[in-house]
Amino acid sequence: MILSPVRPAATAFAVVAVLAAPALANDVHVFAAASMANAMAEIEAGFEAATQHDLVVSLAGSSVLARQIQQGAPADIFISANPGWMDVLESGGLLEPGTRFDLLNNSLVLIAAGTEAPDIQIGPEMDLAGLLGAGRLAMALVDAVPAGIYGKAALDSLGLWDTVKTQVAQADNVRAALAFVTTGEAPFGIVYATDAVASENVTVVGTFPADTHPRIIYPAADLANRDTAAEAAFMDYLRGPEARAAFERQGFGFVAE
């Protein structure tokens, strides 16, 4: 089952945007994974104040953004929620050589609707199907979006995927999956820990063990379409203390050197 995407509330960014107008020299167009919405709001304000450059951010599932870049969308910087989609662009010659680096990491959590849900021990013995009852498990697209791919891998590792796969409600990106739980359309969901921090209407009931899924890494890279001082300034800013503080406030682990 795939539900229609829900746009997260209170975000100033486009969920998906194909930018048609030519970029100005002092503009930086960033395509970033949807799970970074709150952190990128802070980054935008801080970067613009520090540099006087303009930051334009488009948010969506990493797969959607990567495909738009392949089709010629004039993005300058790509930040993916997993290395796989960055690998696709790199193999296609779409990255500026030597600019790719690992920026962030994250963890994967099970969330429940409401603010008082009890903790759940996540392991092979967890009766997730029983917990769902007739309800749905909200996840990002399990074959395309990183959060969904990681979530499916974790459930597979625990021997639970086959017991719940018919009850999974897939959303176009992880913030849309979060919204399904926030609004009560699904009683449970699998999202990043940073997404759960962004909502006051869900409870983290458990964290998936790190060994149940590939390590969640967010790589960043400059795209090989133009080269401006503004792009270089933003790549430096991403590695700096102000960006690190913004990311860590939103629950990310900062891995960039």
From TrEMBL:
Protein name: Molybdate ABC transporter substrate-binding protein
Alphabetical list of Pfam families matching this protein: SBP_bac_11
Key word Metal-binding present: yes
Transmembrane spans: none
Keyword terms of this UniProt record: Metal-binding, Signal
Top-level lineage group: Bacteria
InterPro entries xrefs: ModA, ModA/WtpA
Provenance organism: Roseinatronobacter domitianus
Signal peptide residues on this chain, from the entry's feature table: 1-25
Protein family: Belongs to the bacterial solute-binding protein ModA family.
